[in-house]
From TrEMBL:
Family annotation (PANTHER family): CONSERVED PROTEIN, HYPOTHETICAL FUSION PROTEIN
VOC domain boundaries: 13-126
Pfam families the UniProt entry points to: Glyoxalase_6 (PF18029)
The protein, known as: VOC family protein
CDD domains: VOC
Length: 128
């Protein structure tokens, strides 16, 4: 059945995105600090949620988690974060537990970092 008014009758919205790692709570704390958000809920020792009040991410502990062997393995999903000062952000993220792999395919456009679980994410400058 079509909706002739132009508005979606039952429009979906993303409730949250979920990530798995070797320590879900530690990963939540890393991304909360990286984004300037807060850990808003914890679920025992296995998971935690972070939010800025509108967007939510939940991080789960996965037994037997193995980080992708990037760049050999293709990635299913990753985050791209942007900052006013990319160099300062890189230094801060590394101080929070990120690492910088040798392989950097972004040139001057973006930098790849690995979160504490070894999963790649990218940082770049805000673009207007």
């Amino acid at each position: 059945m079509s909706n002739t008014s132009g508005a979606a009758a039952n429009e979906a919205r993303v409730k949250c995105a979920a990530f798995w790692g070797h320590d879900g709570k530690a990963l939540a704390e890393f991304y909360a600090a990286a984004l300037g958000w807060k850990v808003t809920e914890t679920y025992g020792d296995a998971a935690a949620m972070i939010s800025d009040g509108t967007t939510r991410y939940v991080f789960y502990t996965a037994k037997g988690f193995e980080a992708p062997r990037w760049p050999q393995d293709e990635l299913v999903f990753h985050l791209d974060l942007s900052f006013d000062d990319v160099a300062a952000a890189e230094d801060r993220l590394i101080s929070l537990g990120a690492t910088k792999p040798e392989h950097q395919p972004g040139g001057t456009h973006w930098t790849v970092l690995l979160d504490p679980s070894g999963q790649p994410f990218c940082i770049s400058a805000h673009r207007g």
